[in-house]
Specification:
By secondary structure, the protein is of the alpha/beta class. The relative contact order is 0.13. The model has no long low-confidence stretch (mean pLDDT 94). The strands form three sheets. The chain has a six-stranded parallel sheet with strand order 3-2-1-4-5-6, with helices on one face. A six-stranded parallel sheet has the order 9-8-7-10-11-12, sandwiched between helices. 37% of the residues lie in helices and 16% in strands. It folds into two domains: 152 residues, Glycogen Phosphorylase B (Rossmann fold); 188 residues, Glycogen Phosphorylase B (Rossmann fold, 3-Layer(aba) Sandwich).
Amino acid sequence: MLSAHFPPPPRRILAIKLADLGDVLNITPALRALRHTFPQARLDVLVNPHTAGLLHGSTLVDEVVTFAKTDFEGVSAFRPTAWLPLLGYLRALRSRGYDTVVDFHHLTTPLGRAKQRMLIMATGTATRVGLDNGHGGWFSHPVPDEGFGARREVEYWLGLAAQLGAHSPDTRLDLPLSPAHQEAAAALLTQHGLRDRGFAVLHPGSGGYSLARRWDAAKFAALAAALHDRYGLPAVLVGTPADGADAVLAAAAAPLIDLSGRTSIKELAAVLGRAALFVGADSGVMHMAAAMATPLVAIFGPTNHLAWAPWTPNSPSRVVRLGISCSPCAYVGHSVRWRNGCPERACLADLEVHHVLAAVGEVVREA
C-alpha cells in the first residue's frame, strides 16, 4: 500500500536501474515524475555502462553514473580481487551525499538482492524507496511487489515515484537524440533511397540476454515480402550483427535493406523514429521504437507481455502472441522461472505470418 505520509522533499536523489536497454527506458516516466515534482533536487541515475548512453543528453537527470554489475555475477562475486575496487567505489558513492534512493528493481534472486542492498545501504540515505516482495526489509518506504505482470513495469516504477509524492501528466518514455543523430540517420536512409514514413523496420533479434524470444528468420523474410505487397513498404533490418539478419536475408525471396551493425544506439533510435512501422520481438529495440512513438507490433513468446508490452500512450501498438496455456513461462510471479523457455517453444514456433499481419493491419489503421 502506498504511504500517505511522504518523506521530506529530497535534495539529492539517486535512481538505480542496473538492467538492459528496454528496462532503462521503462523507468524514464518515473524519472520525469521525480523531475517534474522536485525540479530543484539533483537527480542522478545509476546504470550499467552499456546503457549509460541512452540517457546522455536527457533533461530528466543531472548525471548518469555507472556500475559494472557483471563484475559481481556468478563466481566473479566471490573473487577477492574484485572487492578492493568495490570498496573504493562504495566509498565514492557515499561521498555524493544522496538523501533519497529509488531502487527500480524486483528483488528476484538472492545474489541480486545482496547487490541491491549493498549499493543502497552504502549511500547512507535515510529515504530508501523500492519494491518489496518480502525480501526488501531495508526499504524505508516499500511498495508491495505483486509479481511480474500484476502491473506493467512502467506502472510499478511510477508507483515508486508516487511513494515520494511525485507525479507527472506526461508518462511517455524518454529517449533524447541530438541533431547529429538525426542527421546521421537521415543520411543513411537517403543512401538507401528511403524516405521518412516510407519503410518498415524489422528487428529479428532479442538482445543477448535470451535468444529464446526470437521468431523464425524465414517467417521474418515472408513478413517482409507481405509488407511490401500489401503496403508498399520496403523492409529494413536493424540490430547488431549478432541479431540474425543474415538468416533473414538468406531466406528472403527479394532483396532487403540490411542496416544491422550500421548505426549507434541513438542513430538506430532516429531511424526507428522515421519508420512507418516496427515489428520485432520483446527486446530493447522494441522499447526504443515505443519511445520514438513508431507504430509497432511486438512479438511475445516465453516472456511476460503483461509486464513488458510496449508502453505507447501516444502511438498505436499491438502485442501478438498465441496465448497457449504455458506462456508466459519466463518472469512469472516473483520468479525468473524459464528464462530460455522450453526446447519446443510452441509459443513462437506456431506463431505464423498471418497472425503478425493481422496485428499490423490494426496498427496501420490507427496510425
